[in-house]
Amino acid sequence: MKKIKIKNHKIVFTILILILCVLTFLYYDLIFKTSYAKDEFSTQVEKIAEQNENPIFKIQKILIYSSANAIDKSENESLQDLSILQYSDIAITIDNTSTVYDLTNENTIKELYIDNISVTTNSDKGRQYVNYKSALDFAKYKEIDELDGDKIEFNIVNTNDENNNTDYEAPTFYADCSNPITLEYMNQDIITNYAASSDSNTISFNGKVLQEAGINLNDINYTLNLTIHIVNNLNEEFICPVRLNVDLSGEDGGIYKGYKYDNTSVSGYEYNFIKIVK
Fold first, then answer.
1. Which helix (H) or strand (E) is 41 found in, with range?
2. Spatial distance between the Cα atoms of 191 and 201, rounded to a whole number of angstroms
3. 155: which DSSP letter?
4. Minimal CA–CA distance to 142: which of 87, 72, 220?
5. How far apart are CA 30 and CA 166, in angstroms?
6. What is the DSSP string of 192-258?
7. Residues 127, 107: Cα–Cα separation, whole Å
8. Contact 122, 221 (CB under 8 A)
């Protein structure tokens, strides 16, 4: 067997150094960086958990009032060209005194907005959207505009003078969280060109019209998702994703009886506002 003779030791040494560098890089990239990322993630999770163990803000109550209406588009209001719609007024109450009892910069609001709004239903009936609704119009039909943009930004009222001069037709919220966030869900044109019978008394301008028009409630039950963002007066940021599964039916007939009213006190981690750790 012939022996292999190395004529250039410098080249071999250089190659070995390169191989060692490559192995070191691979170790760092595949093992060290992964381990470091895991440690950083664990530290971040622990930090978030510590800061949110006693939440400054949490959702205390969600109230949903659901009804329906019929818009008469026929000439002379003859009830021969009706558009059927369903709406829900939603009030979300925020508790800001369970951890901090007095009003401070920590538990008062500087900014509030809602985004990531999405609606899913069990059918393609109607046209759904969500927007702010004045609390002064809560639990009564009032057509709202579709949202212009991808979020609802609230004006924050800090003083009595501001309160007296505020236009509540625009999104409004008190800095001390003393009023609820009020929204309206609208499902327009569930049925269009609906004609009433010759007896006009058969048309109801509330939830009963859904039954009169033969609308299956399972088709228009919906799930609403949104995210509430808060910035307090310390410039700390908090978020709370909200998921509402709205069932319009019920043992007593649900919305078919005219309206449905759900008033729920909520609890649990999913209703806490999570502080954003920077």
1. helix 33-51
2. 19
3. E
4. 87
5. 58
6. EEE---S-GGG--SSTHHHHHTT--HHHH-EEEEEEEEEEETT--EEEEEEEEEE----TT-GGGGS
7. 38
8. yes
CA distance 140 to 88: 10
Could you give the CA distance from residue 20 to residue 23 in angstroms, rounded to a whole number? 5
Considering Cα of 30, then 35, then 36, then 38, what sign does the dihedral take?
positive
In this structure, the number of other CB atoms found within 10 A of the CB of residue 226 comes to 22
Q: Confidence class of residue 3 from pLDDT cuts 50, 70 and 90?
A: very low
- Residues pairing with 211 in the sheet: none
How confident is the model over 199-220, as pLDDT tens digits? 555 689 999 999 999 999 999 9
Nearest CA to 104 among 178, 176, 181, 180?
A: 176
The pTM score is 0.81
Residue closest to 244 by CA, chosen among 130, 119, 140: 119
Both tokens of 264, joined, read 């729920």
Q: How far is it, in rounded angstroms, from Cα 259 to Cα 68?
A: 8
Instruction: Please tell me the distance from the alpha carbon of residue 206 to that of residue 185, in angstroms, as a whole number.
Output: 15
DSSP state letter for 106: S
Q: Spell out where the chain has E strands.
A: 58-72, 82-95, 109-121, 127-132, 152-153, 155-157, 172-174, 181-194, 222-232, 237-246, 260-265, 274-275
First to last CA, the chain: 67
Burial group, residue 277, by CB count within 10 angstroms (0-12, 13-18, 19+)? middle
Segment 130-141, tens digit of pLDDT: 999 999 999 999
Nearest residue to 277 (alpha-carbon basis) of 243, 242, 239: 239
Mean pLDDT, residues 93-102: 93
